[in-house]
Amino acid sequence: TWQKGNPLLKHIRNARWTFADIVPDYVIGQSSCALYISLRYHLLHPDYLYYRIRELQKNFKLRVILCHIDIEDVVKPLHEVTRTSLLHDCTLLCGWSLEECGRYLETIKVFENKPADSIREHTDNDYLSRFTHALTSIRRVNRTDVITLGSSFG
Q1: pTM to 2 decimal places
Q2: What average pLDDT does this structure show over 116-141?
Q3: Beta partners for 116?
Q4: Distance from first CA to last CA of the chain, Å, rounded?
Q5: Half-sphere exposure of 113 (CA within 13 A, CB side)
Q6: 72-124 residue pLDDT tens
Q7: How far apart (Å, rounded) are the C-alpha atoms in residues 90 and 92?
Q8: How many CA atoms lie within 13 A of 25 on its CB side?
Q9: Digit-coded pLDDT (tens) for 24-50
Q10: What are the Cα distances from residue 92, in Å, to 80, 89, 154?
Q11: Dist. CA 19–CA 28, nearest whole Å
């Protein structure tokens, strides 16, 4: 019920949701939850996040802090939110728009029962695919460079 009136709710379209009397802002799985905070709100109420995390206790395995970056000068408040998240074993996700924050919640919900393999990169076993994968892991090498190198040196 903390989230009634939150404009973020308009951007959660690919997952069903309902209001409930729960401790976290969002329950996104059997053992996953999220707390939402905007940096603007954090500046007005710097202790809010700490007290909300404390209310969760240890009831959830995955505790996500969904932070909406909605101000220009982010360094100090984002540092505070990051520090609070880390000190209390929470995962911090930052979104620069309400749409992005909504997509994070949807994605966590969609993948809640999927194995880790479903989000890992899949590469084919042929030589060119393995060669491309190996060379593009170097930061400044792209697929075009791989094709050029392959055609030049075989």
Answers
A1: 0.69
A2: 75
A3: none
A4: 62
A5: 2
A6: 999 999 999 999 999 999 999 999 999 998 888 888 787 776 665 655 666 67
A7: 6
A8: 23
A9: 878 888 888 989 999 999 999 999 999
A10: 12, 10, 45
A11: 13
Nearest alpha carbon to residue 27 among 50, 54, 47, 2: 2
Q: Where are the domains of the chain?
A: 7-115, 121-154
Contact assessment for residue 34 and residue 105, using Cβ atoms and an 8 Å cutoff: yes
CA pseudo-torsion sign 60, 119, 85, 51: negative
State the residue for tokens 């749409």. 99
Separation CA 154–CA 142 (nearest Å): 17
Residue among 107, 100, 94 nearest 37 (CA): 94
Average pLDDT, the chain: 83
Fold of 7-115: Rossmann fold (3.40.50)
Contact 57, 50 (CB under 8 A): no
